[in-house]
Design brief:
The complex is a heterodimer of chains A (175) and B (99). Chain A is mostly helical. Chain A is built from 7 helices and no strands. The longest helix of chain B is centred in the C-terminal third of the chain and has 31 residues. Classes of the chains: A mainly alpha (175), B mainly alpha (99). Chains A and B meet through helix 1, helix 2, helix 3, helix 4 and helix 6 of A and helix 1, helix 2 and helix 3 of B.
Chain lengths: 175, 99
């Protein structure tokens, strides 16, 4: 096994196990901590794809800013654990008919996906075979501020709206 | 590594996120599962961008991250507001619009 493949499988394992733990943990604090581990695995994969700036942004923005926000809210709210009894009583998947139909649909979807993947040509082409990597920050910035200028400006409006919305929604109302 | 490896990993992560949205009964874990799905899409974008030698895959990843940040901010503010009302994070508790 080559060096590249070894790192790919290591980072992929970290990412998948971290994501699985997010879904399987009962305590939201552990969920947030394991998603941070998954994000570090993804950052490693971005480095393998020769996109170092995306990897750095992934760690700074995702693992640094967004997840700290999540952790802050989890600790602020003193979130109760999900208990199994409540899950059994209230979960829609507890209805047997819904479970059967859903399972059939999920199996069908997985089969179709596998069929589509097996019929697609060029999947075994290496990601680095055909073209050189574009990984310089200068190149990224040039494209971002010319071709994607409009989207960039709209994003700033989106962030302002989200900021104002978050402050208004989370504020305590005095009556 | 081939593009197929990255696509299968991306699909696997997306499936885990979807399963989380359907299986968990906790608004914060639901938001985390949505983040996993967004990251799965990011991985596919960067892998395709690398294969085509284009910079666009990485740029779209930045936009997805920005939207994820906005979504997390507004979503968590909503979660705080809902928790103040009901003292619960179970989505089944918020059914007052149901008749």
């Amino acid at each position: 096994m080559s060096f590249d493949a070894l790192f790919f499988y290591a980072f992929a394992a970290v990412t998948v196990i971290g994501s699985l733990l997010v879904v399987l943990q009962k305590n939201p604090v552990y969920s947030v901590l394991s998603i941070i581990a998954a994000f570090f695995g993804l950052a490693g994969l971005y480095v393998l794809l020769e996109a170092p700036f995306v990897a750095v942004v992934q760690i700074i923005i995702y693992a640094g800013a967004i997840m700290v926000l999540f952790l802050f809210v989890v600790m602020l709210l003193n979130v109760p654990r999900e208990d199994a009894a409540e899950w059994d009583r209230s979960h829609p998947l507890y209805r047997p008919m819904a479970v059967r139909i859903g399972a059939v649909l999920a199996v069908l979807l997985a089969l179709e996906l596998g069929w589509a993947l097996s019929r697609t040509a060029g999947l075994s082409a290496g990601v680095a075979d055909d073209s050189p990597a574009v990984s310089s920050v200068a190149e990224l910035g040039k494209v971002l501020f010319t071709d994607y200028m409009f989207a960039f400006e709209v994003t700033s409006i989106l962030i302002i709206a989200a900021m104002v919305g978050a402050v208004v929604l989370a504020r305590k109302r005095e009556h | 590594m081939s593009i197929g490896h990255y696509l299968v990993l991306s699909g696997l992560l997306f499936a885990i996120g979807t399963a989380g949205v359907f299986l968990r009964r906790n608004l914060i874990t639901l938001l985390l599962s949505v983040e996993i799905m967004l990251n799965a899409v990011n991985l596919a974008f960067v892998a395709f961008g690398r294969q085509l030698g284009e910079v666009d895959g990485q740029i779209i990843t930045f936009f997805v991250m920005t939207v994820a940040a906005a979504e997390a901010a507004v979503g968590l503010a909503l979660v705080i507001g809902l928790f103040r009302h009901r003292e619960s994070l179970n989505p089944e508790a918020f059914t007052s619009l149901k008749w």
